[in-house]
Amino acid sequence: MLRFIDQLIRHKWWANSNLLRSIEQHPTALDDPELRRLLHHILVANRYWILLTLGQSFVDEKEKRIPESHAALMDQFRDTEQLEIDWLSQITENELDRQIQPRALPGITISVAQAMTQVALHSHGHRSQCTTRLRALGGDPTPMDFVLWVRDFKGHA
User: Fold this and answer.
1) 22 neighbors 140 (Cβ within 8 angstroms)
2) pTM assigned to the model
3) pLDDT tens-place string over residues 111-122
4) How far apart are CA 34 and CA 90, in angstroms?
5) What whole-number distance in Å separates Cα of residue 117 and Cα of residue 111?
6) Exposed e or buried b for every residue in 122-146, given b needs 16+ CB within 10 A?
7) Across all residues in the chain, what is the average pLDDT?
8) What SS3 class is residue 52?
9) How far apart, in whole angstroms, are the C-alpha atoms of residue 6 and residue 12?
10) What pLDDT score was predicted for residue 153?
11) How many CB atoms lie within 10 A of CB 53?
């Protein structure tokens, strides 16, 4: 399971990076509030689950504030990626089996592996929304398929 979670997380960050770069190449997209809102939602969900996993506080007032610029959003993506990759570099199978209780879903517990799978799948869905929006604005998204990541990063696959 550890290898699978590692692949999901690393692919997610690769795909996020491809999407963000595609947006940077299209000035209209950089200033689009709907696209920034969608990107921020991806980030907020990711931060919610990694902070829960790490036992750190998720402060709604701070986390849910949409950045004023694409550059500020990029900084938050980079910080969150580093946080998650640092965590990923030291986890064990036992950590993936550990149960956590999301406050967003009272009364249930899920494993850390299930939480990380949720993040990967959730971000995938919203990246699709972002690519649709980017195309509507005249942009051209870079491919983000998992199999392309596997092809290009065989050391992690």
Assistant:
1) yes
2) 0.92
3) 999 999 999 999
4) 36
5) 10
6) bbbebbeebbebbeebebebbebeb
7) 94
8) helix
9) 10
10) 85
11) 19
Are 40 and 74 contacting, i.e. CB atoms less than 8 angstroms apart? Answer: no
Provide the H-helix boundaries in 26-111.
Answer: 27-30, 33-54, 60-63, 70-88, 93-97
Q: Which residue has the tokens 């950089």?
A: 30
Which phi-psi region, left, alpha or beta, contains residue 106 (left: φ > 0; alpha: ψ -120 to 50)? Answer: beta
Domains of the chain: 2-152 (1.20.120.450)
In the numeric block, which tokens belong to residue 153? 């990063």
User: How many angstroms separate the CA atoms of 64 and 40, rounded?
Assistant: 8
Alpha carbon dihedral 149, 150, 154, 157, in 10-degree steps, equals: 120
Residue 104 has pLDDT above 60, yes or no: yes
**Separation of CA 152 from chain center:** 20
51: which 2 tokens? 């902070």
* Cα–Cα nearest to 126, from 44, 42, 63: 42
What does the block give as tokens for 139? 């942009």
Beta bridge partners of 2: none
- DSSP letter for 73, please: H
Token pair listed for 113: 């592996």
